[in-house]
Amino acid sequence: MYDVAVIGAGIIGSFVARELSKYDLDIVLIEKDTDIANGTTKANSAIIHAGYDAVPGTLKARLNALGNPMYDSVCKELDVHFKRIGSMVIATNQEEIKKIKNLYERGLKNGIPNMEILDAEKVRQKEAGINEDVIGALYAPTAGIICPWELAVALAENAADNGVEIKLESQVTDIEKVENNYHIYTEKEKIKAKYVINCGGLYSEEISKMVGDKSFKITPRRGEYNILDKNAGNIVKHVIFQAPTEYGKGVIVTPTVHGNLLVGPNAEDIDDKGNTKTTREGIELIREVSKKTIKRIPFNLTITSFSGLRAKPDTGDFIIEESKAAKGFINVAGIESPGLSAAPAIAEYVIDIFKGINCHLKGKRDFKPNRRPLIRFMELSNEEKSRVINEDPRYGRIICRCEGITEGEIVDAINRNAGARTLDAVKRRVRPGMGRCQGGFCGPRVMEILARELGKDINDIVKDGSQSYILVDETKSGL
Ligand SMILES: Cc1cc2nc3c(=O)[nH]c(=O)nc-3n(C[C@H](O)[C@H](O)[C@H](O)COP(=O)(O)OP(=O)(O)OC[C@H]3O[C@@H](n4cnc5c(N)ncnc54)[C@H](O)[C@@H]3O)c2cc1C
Q: Which residues belong to any copy of the FAD dependent oxidoreductase domain (predicted)?
């Protein structure tokens, strides 16, 4: 019997599991997919918002304002890339100047520090390439960029280092309350826990219904993106938003934490919670709307397109509470934007709720806050590279030529706690396949390493989903 079962290993479930692992508790993190961060967490704008956008008084506003400053320390503890590059919301006419002033006022109410309204000249001093018709901007220096799945994986790994058991490929299909405990059914087994925390993202509605709580509805709202080659990564230095319209925050143009350029998203309500297709219309729309920020984005340098699904709640705010229908069952649902920015504060908020319903919470003396640092070969000096190769020659073998990723890094990504089991899981952890060729050259070599390290037949290595086999048969086997 576990003390706590956390359902869903996105950024929220991973943060919550790690926060809980600071206490003397038996914890299990249950995830339906083959990896951590395979839901909304893997496909979003990756911005740690400053916090001026959400309506004052909402949980979104409060937890974004609290979450943003927590990022420096958590990323340091877990050795995760994070850059506080600041954001601008641009205005191209007087109507939009009014809008950015409203955002500024909201920001003051939300307690956001150091915001400024910039005139056209100051905007251009900060962003030389911005369109000439930009007449002002709301500047927020505390906004940042991150790699959300890198963080979620690091949190899950650190949670596992601190005793959390992670069960992947374990879709929760039913939950039963038996006396004071919960029996959680997956396709594989029955898991017993005293408390359940529902961090199921888009599916948190379905999970909540399993305990008879039908109090909210989640609608998927799709957003599509283009990601451009690193040669386009320095077109802007800040996260550039457009003044909000009735369709939302507009299209963002931003560098990524790894140096690419990200353009998107659009916003489209859809019915299917599994539909992460990109569409010609969606991509054309984001390219057209991005011209308002920068007229000539070199879309010929696009290396891939993707889409993510926002978990839009019908309540209009995050739903973070013990269910009224089921004692000891906590919903952490409707975590749409700024869910990533708010995530560390959401985890603390959940612990407070948890403390309120569980008087026996005791801090763990031997909690390990730090993750073993990664060796990122391309970030080392020449002396450090030589030393690392001397210690382990696998760091001298480059597997991914686009990103400069070595065999040593891939082997480490597989063999850590919460390690990679699929081709895409390796890609998300250490980036082979994230470059221009998108894995065309390194994919087969990464598969060989995965098969060797996991002791599997190479035919059993999957791309991402449990049935996404890459190799089907030998060619020329009859010759
Ligand atoms: C287009 C877009 C742009 C965004 N931009 C930003 C941004 O710039 N900044 C920001 O702060 N936020 C942003 N967000 C919001 C942010 O991405 C989310 O708030 C965050 O990723 C939500 O994380 P989560 O853990 O709740 O959900 P998820 O990442 O979806 O995790 C839920 C997990 O639960 C698992 N699960 C579901 N059902 C079951 C089941 N039955 N059994 C077991 N496991 C299950 C899923 O597989 C999944 O891994 C954006 C979102 C989108 C879509």
A: 3-352
**310 CA: nearest ligand 1 atom:** 53
**Quick one: pLDDT at residue 440?**
84
* CATH level 3 topology of 1-82+144-217+314-373: FAD/NAD(P)-binding domain (3.50.50)
Over residues 241-265, the pLDDT tens digits come to 999 876 667 899 999 999 999 999 9
Return the ligand 1 atom nearest residue 333 CA: 26
Q: What is the CATH number of domain 377-460?
A: 1.10.10.1100
Q: What is the pLDDT of residues 170-203, one digit of tens each?
A: 999 999 999 999 999 999 999 999 999 999 999 9
Query: For the residues 47-59, what does the mean pLDDT come to?
Result: 98
If one residue of 14, 16, 41 were mutated to test the ligand 1 pocket, choosing by the most ligand atoms within 8 A of its CB, it would be: 41
Who's near 462: CB < 8 A, 6+ residues apart?
A: 34, 422, 423, 468, 469, 470
Q: Is 360 a catalytic residue?
A: no
